[in-house]
Specification:
single chain; 200 residues; mainly alpha; elongated
């Protein structure tokens, strides 16, 4: 009888522990879901039945944003909030004149929002064009200096093979006088291999 009571007590403790673990897991899942939903709400908002991303450029996030880019982003967000508020008022209103007035105001806000986003896109295009110009200049310069680049590469490879290169920068201070090729040849030499086998 005493043994049976012990078994029952163990089963009760196990069940209580399982319930506690399940409860904690559910609470953590709910917290993660709430956090994800909050992050999604901060990055986008809903207008009617369609989603509208409030941040259309991945490159806008993070540090190093110029004052003009920050101003445009703030204007974009403000227009988005105004649009959502006007749409909500239009849906709730039953007065035809008020709905028409809200429609005109909404049209004005949308037009201003469009201009803001056009400016944002224009800035992005300017940045991309500047990057392309830089890459094109570098590409043309490499083309002109082909012989020098090839010669430098050849000289470096041959000097490294002869053990006359700079050496490794990986902290291998004990082998500064050996090139990578020399180290490989020494480590794989028959004498070294036989010596290693004899020591075993």
């Amino acid at each position: 009888m005493s043994r049976s009571l012990k078994i029952v007590a163990l089963l009760i403790m196990f069940a209580a522990g399982s319930a506690l673990w399940i409860g904690k897991s559910l609470a953590q899942s709910a917290a993660i879901t709430s956090s994800s939903q909050g992050a999604a709400a901060n990055s986008s908002y809903q207008v009617g039945q369609g989603g509208y991303e409030s941040n259309i450029y991945a490159g806008e996030a993070g540090d190093g944003v110029s004052p003009e880019a920050a101003r445009l982003r703030q204007a974009d967000h403000a227009h988005a909030q105004s649009t959502r508020a006007l749409v909500a008022k239009h849906q709730q209103s039953s007065d035809s004149q008020e709905r028409e007035s809200l429609r005109e105001e909404l049209n004005k806000v949308i037009a201003e929002h469009f201009e803001t986003r056009q400016q944002m896109r224009a800035r992005e295009l300017e940045e991309l064009e500047a990057q392309v110009r830089h890459l094109r200049t570098l590409h043309d310069r490499r083309k002109k200096e082909k012989d020098q680049i090839v010669g430098d590469r050849l000289q470096r490879l041959l000097r490294d093979a002869d053990g006359l290169g700079w050496g490794s920068d990986d902290g291998d201070a004990g082998n500064l006088f050996r090139s990578p090729a020399t180290r490989r040849s020494v480590s794989s030499s028959p004498a070294r291999a036989s010596g290693s086998n004899n020591s075993q």
